[in-house]
Amino acid sequence: MISIVIPTYNEKDNIKPLLERIHGALPGIPHEVVFVDDSQDSTPEVIAEIAKTDPTVVLHHRSDEKGLATAVVKGFSLAKGDYVAVMDADLQHPPEVLMDMYAAMEAHADMAIPSRFIPGGSDGGLNLWRKFVSWTARYIGKILLPCLRKVTDPTSGLFMIRRELLEGIALNPIGWKIMVEVIAMCPVKKVLETPYVFQEREAGESKLSTKVTIQYLKQVFHLMSAATNRGKGMKVQHWSLEKLEEKKLKYGSPKA
After folding, report:
1. What is the pLDDT of residues 68-105, one digit of tens each?
2. pTM of this prediction exceeds 0.85
3. Are 237 and 93 in contact (CB under 8 A)?
4. Contact 2, 85 (CB under 8 A)
5. CB neighbours of 227 closer than 8 A, spacing ≥ 6?
6. Which residues of 231-253 are buried (b: 16+ CB within 10 A; e: fewer)?
7. What is the longest distance spanned by two Cα atoms in the chain?
C-alpha cells in the first residue's frame, strides 16, 4: 500500500480536486491519503466531510503546532503503507506522478524523486523570482551536503520512500524542506529520478517567505554536522520519458 502524506494549511478549495486526481492516478492500487492539517480556514471540515464516505482519507488536525516539515514527520508516524509519498496540496505537484514514483519503487528504488531538471521535466509553474530562489536553495544544499550532489531536484518536497527507511530515524526538520532532511538522515542508497512538469497553483496562496528561506539555511547548516548519510555509495539514476512509460506498463497494474 502507498501512504500519501499531505501537509495542509488553508487549502480548502484544492482538497476535492486533489483527492479526485490522486484516486484517478492510482487505479486498483491500495493507498491512503494522510492529511496533517494546520489550517485556520475550513480545510479540516472539508477533509472530514469527505472522509465520511472515503475510507482512504485520514485527517490529523493540529492546533498546537505549525510547520510543513513537522507536519510531514507526523504523517510519517501515521502512515501504514510500505511506500510513503509526500506531496503538496496546491496541485503544483501533479498527483499523476504518484504512478511514476510507484513504478520506480517497484523497480527496487529506496527513494523515488520526480525531477524538474532532467529531460522531459520543467519548472514552468514558477515565476522568475521563485526560479531564482529555488536555484539558489538547490545549489547551497549541493555545496554544503554531499548527499545532495547527485540529486537534480532535492528541494521540491515531492518524493516517495520505503517506510522501513524512516523507522528509528530522528528527524528534526526546520522549516519546509523535508526532503533534504530525509535524504541526509535516512539510509538511502538507490534513488530513481523521473521527469515531471511543475504546475501553476490553481487556488490559494504561495507560502514562500523570507522566514522560510532563513529556516532552510538553518536546516542546511545544522545537517552539515548532523547528517548520517554522507552520500558515499548512494546511486542516483534517471529515467527518460520513454523508459518511464515502459516501467509504468510493467509495474502500474495492481498485483493479482
Report:
1. 889 999 999 999 999 999 999 999 899 999 999 999 99
2. yes
3. no
4. yes
5. 145, 147, 184, 185
6. beebebebbeeeebeebbeebbe
7. 50
